[in-house]
Amino acid sequence: MTVDLPYAGMTFERQKTNRMNLAIETHNVRKLYKPRGRPEIVALHGLDLAVAEGTVFGFIGPNGAGKTTCIKILSGLSSPSSGSATIFGHQAGSEEARACLGYLPEIANYHDFMSVEELLLTHARLARVPRAQQREACQSALEAVRLVDRRKSRIRELSKGMQQRFGIAQALVGNPKLLILDEPTSGLDPLAQKEVKDIILALRGRGITIFFSSHKLTEVENICDLICILHRGKLLQCSPLDRLLEVSGTVHIRFSGASPQLVEGATLASQSSEGSMIVLPSSQVDRQIQQIHAVGGSVQQVATERLTLELAFFNLITQAEHRS
Amino acid sequence: MKAAFIIARLTLIETMRRQIELLTFFLAVFIWILPGITTAFGLGAIDRIVKDVALTVIGYYTVALALFFGSVTVPAEIERKTILPLITRPLPRRAYLWGKWLGVMGFISFSIVILGAALQCSMAITMHVYDPRVWVAIVGYLTEAAVLSAVCMTCSTFCSPPLAGVLGVFVYLMGGLPDAFIGYFLGNARWPAFLTFLPTKLHIAQALKAMLPHFEFFQLKNSIVHGDPIFLTYVLSTMAYGVMWIVFLQLLGEVTFSRRDL
Ligand SMILES: Nc1ncnc2c1ncn2[C@@H]1O[C@H](COP(=O)(O)OP(=O)(O)OP(=O)(O)O)[C@@H](O)[C@H]1O
Ligand SMILES: [Mg+2]
After folding, report:
1. Is the distance from CB of B6 to CB of A122 less than 8 angstroms?
2. What tens digit of pLDDT does each residue of B110-160 get?
């Protein structure tokens, strides 16, 4: 079964039909920071996002792109300067919206004088887990992050990676419909990174929507249904992985006939009597095909070379840097 | 409101686990030995002196606690970022502020009760005196601390902890100044000639004072030390006055805090 995921670039009408099961929707969200006595910073320039329920959404972008700013707006820690954001149809930041989500902050500090179990129980209470289920909820969250044997330790006695795992446990303890994780694997050893990845995959199996930012592109590539690349507060691309890799990849056009004029970015890779090959960026395909037809040639094959997410990311960011 | 109690509990546990109550125990020991010291100096009206000194110490201690915890508790949590996972839970920011205030007041109440008990016990043992009115003074101090910590906490939602503390001290001193004092020191002072169109400093000081909580209402110590009558209605009405200020200040704090980016 293929799941039709909404993404930026999809028509507004189609988004409207899917709106009922959108976990996250933002509309023209702008965020301006006005530090006193210094020039203002536009962290988000009119961000439009639509994330369907059950999606694992990867949010990537260079440092300072605005990922954390967006996440803070979604989790109600800061408010947009203009535009709107909703979580399951509730205004982001409202109690109803916060009741749906579990959040892992980017820079996570916890009440280090509390024990793991005590603090988790406190979070379960705040997350309105029914009293009878609080202990069970804590137990399963601790099991998920493999911290059961450290339940009596004070938070300050945990290593950095363990504290990060505790952070994931506290995000999970309220049994949220939406998990927002800001760089969940930062500071974790490779084994723990894999564990976090496995946790996310297991949660995906349970239909939980996961929105996470990361700088680890292979991890994003492996677990995300939908990937969004943010650059200087603007959305560069937001699409399923396959599409993203194709769109930002290189295209090979095999053709026969006279040599056409090469469009910008295209190179003639091989030339023979049976057919020639042009390599070019995907955005130029249509124009190049027109050029081939213009000199009476015929296109034999158009093939997309898939990139890794890392390469696609570099290409898109470099192009965006050039444009700006 | 349940969420506020959860936050209050967390705040109270924090102060306890950071062993701040040791300071209270240290003071309790001082109050405990106070009758002994006073008797050793052979001063007259010992019970009055003991009560006066002990209640003054307790008063300053509660003011210090209110100023310190009131201005630090919220900004410290924002600074350490421990607030982030809490405030993303489904609780209104109002509940968080009330929880913090309740936690601070929980600790101050605990401290002041320990000190009051130390005073009563030591007076009962060494001087065979038990004065239940000491508890009335303590209720006054508690109300004062409750208002003062609310002042500082409200200030701390829009300025740094040191500034919130300084503003707290200012409000406490200004709001507690007797009118006679203002009149004596400022009454004759005039603005420079070119500013004569402004009202006198006295009027400004009086107007400022009128807008601030009147901390002198909570000062029951002197009446208690000197055995003057204190009416229950007076105590109850000062408490109601305190509650009104606390609610007002918390609402004010909520306005700035709910807009704040964390
Ligand atoms: N509190 C703040 N005050 C002023 N500017 C801010 C503030 N927080 C973020 N910014 C600015 O907003 C922009 C986006 O920052 P943000 O933290 O959202 O980036 P990010 O994508 O999460 O980066 P990173 O990958 O490094 O975590 C940056 O230019 C940053 O300097
Ligand atoms: Mg970030």
Report:
1. yes
2. 999 999 999 888 888 887 878 888 898 899 999 999 999 999 999 999 888
Point out the residue among B6, B13, B18 whose CB comes nearest to the CB of A126: B6
Residue A187 in any domain: the answer is yes
Q: What b-and-e string marks burial along B128-166, b requiring 16 or more CB atoms within 10 Å of the CB? A: ebebeebbbbbbbbbbbbbbbbbbbbbbbbbeebeebbb
Same domain, A156 and A182: yes
| B45 CB-near residues (< 8 Å, 6+ apart) | none
pTM: 0.84
Can you give the residue range of the structural domain that contains A80?
Answer: 2-245
**Residue carrying structure tokens 């994780």:** A181
**Does A123 contact B89 at a Cβ distance shorter than 8 Å?**
yes
Distance CA A236, CA B144 (A): 57
Note whether residue A41 is domain-resident: yes
Name the domain count of chain A: 2
pLDDT tens-digit series, residues B37-54 = 777 676 667 778 888 888
A173: CATH? 3.40.50.300
**ipTM rounded to 2 decimals:** 0.84
Select from B14, B259, B262 the Cβ nearest to the Cβ of A113.
B14
